[in-house]
Amino acid sequence: MRTKTTDGADGRLHILVGSVAVVASAVLVFAAVAAVDDPRPFLSWETLTVTTLIAVTSSALIKIRIRSTTQAFSSNSVAIIVAFALLPVHSVIISTAVAVTATQVLQRIDAIKVAFNAAKFTVAAGVAGAVVTALGGFDLEHADPVRIALMLVAAAVSLMVANDGLALPVIALASRGPALRRFLANWKFELGALGARIILAGLSLLVIQLDKRMLIAMPLLVLCLQLALASRVRAGAERDAWQQLAQSTDELNDVDLDGVLRAAVTRAAELFSADAIEVEVRGRLVRGDTDGVLYDGPVEEADPYPGNVIPVPLEGHDGGVDVGVLRLRFRGPIKLNEREQYTLRTFGSALCTAIRNATSYAELARLAHQNAHDATHDPLTGLANRRRLQDEGAEALERRPVRGVTALLLIDLNHFKEVNDTLGHAAGDKVLVSVARRLESAAGPDAVVARLGGDEFAVLLRGLSAPAVAAHRAHTMLAALTEPIDLDGMRIGVEASIGIATAPSRGGIVELLRRADVAMYQAKRTGARTASYARSRDTADVVRLTLGGELPRAVAEHEIRVSFQPIVDLTSGEVLAAEALARWHHPDKGDLDPRRFLEAVERSGILPAFADAVLDQALLAVVDWRDAGFDLPVAVNVSPRSLLDRRFPAAVAARLRTHDVPPDRLILELTESLTLSQLEIVDQVLGALRDDGIRLALDDFGTGFSSLAMLSRVPVQELKIDREFVAAMETSPEAAAVVRSTVDLGRSLNLTVVAEGVESEYQRRTLWELGCVAGQGHLFARPMPAPRLLAALRRGSGGRPGTLAPPLHETATVIRIPQARRAPAPQPQPERLPHWPA
């Protein structure tokens, strides 16, 4: 918005003044011709008296400032009306022109104003004279009151219309302001002044009718009227000014800063009759006039405004810090009177208060909006929080017959606690923010992405065409997380498990969240990256939650018991070691498989106590076996979270010392698909365990995504082939290839290879032919308590203590060694602890 211009206004003003002067000249010529033709003498005492009367009333001016120009008004209309009753019309016109011109010249008014005022009154006198003549003129001799009153009204109205009709356009051009608006605003005063002129003219005529010599006293009487009228005008102006000030300050009572500034410039322009008003607040400039805002924007981009300026600092009554500045702009020189200066200070103080109030309200509104936003958004990632997710979900479920299928994806980051524990919470926060941005991008604008707390996120999908679309969107989310996150030069991979649930028939958003949670934990248990909610698995999830609350009691009351499954030499059937398998002997539910409660153990704070309980029972069994003559190592599974505890190696060493078990009699099995070997702390813990002489095994080898990378970093002595590959190698070439390559890899790295899940003699012989050393499974023995295993060792197989199966080949039998079992060429190997013989 740019400031309006008034180019050409001065030119139009001169043209208008010249036009009025030409018309006045024509009127004077007509009057002069009429005076020559009139046999009555032009100069008489009546003419001189009337001319003096018009001159006196023209000199007593009422001055009104309109913007940067001051306009003067006189009440010579009374004298002109009286003149029409005493003199011919042409004499009145000539007397008016002479009296006004002489008065203006003596008052040293500008030439253009002299010319215009003389011409204006001359034309007005001509117009009024024409009206009076048309109505038959005054007839004082017959003294008809009705006729005299009619003529007074006609003369007064015609004078006012002609006078104001010529003056208003000139005033508007000279002041560049709305002169007509000011006239209409004071119409009551104008009508009152018109009535006063008519009454005074009528009284004057009555006095003159009684005695014409009283005409000499008329100038003094009219002068007194003029002064009284001027006083009334000033009083009315004062009253109107205070009323306008009150109205203006009332309009500033707005809580919107834009509304305050718009009202300020428009009301101040009218209140102070300024060409323009500017309010500058904190680098923002608002400029306007009575027609509205002309510019609103930065101060430095505003066009310059010509003329003079009166600045007023915007400060309160207490003289506090300025909030800005108010400027009155005038195109010409101007000086405010005392009343206007006080009004300006009062208006500035009110404007300052209004700006402060509006600013405070805006800040309160911003804080309220921020609080409302914070109440429904996660402070770290900016995503929706649980509250907003529930609100959006409830709304979606209410409209689901129209909007299609509603689904919820519950996303949990795998092993995020390790990131916090190893790299610190600041790095963890960066990972969460990065994950949030990726989920938002992958989810699309119609989805609601929320962080429910910790490393748990949710995505609400609305309006899906079919439930199967939710699974496709889940895979899209996982794909968005595959790219590693760069943390100060360290690249961290992110894995997640996603539970998928579609809107239930009842239960609302709470039930939808519960079902997604059930599906998510199902995905974690099975190792799948996604899982959809199934009612058949829901009961197990409820039981899992119940069992989680009973775990502390189970550990404290020794309900966690360890069974042992022997690891057997495939060739001789001799027992080489035993794997410790934890079972929960629940008082109500019987023996519970570890898959029912291990996840709850890992997510709770009882993991160290649980690990100690299992390790104690395993080492006690080693001592019992050793005392009975069977020096067998024991293999114990280790939770990945234990590997993130720097105190874990010391705790294990303390248990070994307590039970007097050599370190090489303990094998710690690591789950390859879950261990975060990239993390430095894991490397340190594993290194400490290895340095203590504890043997390490890599369990479920081949099921993860970084097997070879794991072997290059983790100092293991043993590989365990997952039971799924063993079970499928008879029918699946791919499974057989995995087993063969694992055995070959172990032989080349001088590692012991153990096959899990050996169920048949065919599998035993096949594994032996491939070069596998040992195996465990139901072919040899099921998991059993330590005393039962000791009894089985004593009993042996075929009268051979320490064996659980007959040898693969009879004694003294000639055996053709398969190519896979032939010793490879010697390769330099890193120094390792003793391992099981092949």
Describe this structure in words.
With 838 residues, the protein is of the alpha/beta class. 53% of the residues lie in helices and 16% in strands. It contains 27 helices and 23 strands. Strands 15-16-18-19-20-21-22-23 form an eight-stranded mixed beta barrel, surrounded by five helices. The longest helix is centred in the middle third of the chain and has 39 residues, at 338-376.
SSE topology:
Layout: H1 9-37, H2 45-59, E1 62-66, E2 69-73, H3 77-86, H4 89-106, H5 111-134, H6 145-175, H7 179-185, H8 187-210, H9 218-251, H10 257-271, E3 276-281, E4 284-289, E5 292-298, E6 308-314, E7 324-330, H11 338-376, H12 386-398, H13 400-403, E8 405-413, H14 416-423, H15 425-443, E9 448-453, E10 456-464, H16 468-480, E11 485-487, E12 490-492, E13 496-502, H17 508-526, E14 530-532, H18 538-556, E15 560-569, E16 575-586, E17 590-592, H19 598-603, H20 607-627, E18 634-638, H21 648-659, E19 666-671, H22 680-691, E20 695-701, H23 707-713, E21 718-721, H24 723-728, H25 733-748, E22 752-756, H26 761-770, E23 774-776, H27 786-795
Parallel strand pairs: 13-14, 16-18, 18-19, 19-20, 20-21, 21-22, 22-23
Antiparallel strand pairs: 1-2, 3-4, 3-7, 4-5, 6-7, 8-10, 8-13, 9-10, 11-12, 15-16, 15-23, 16-17
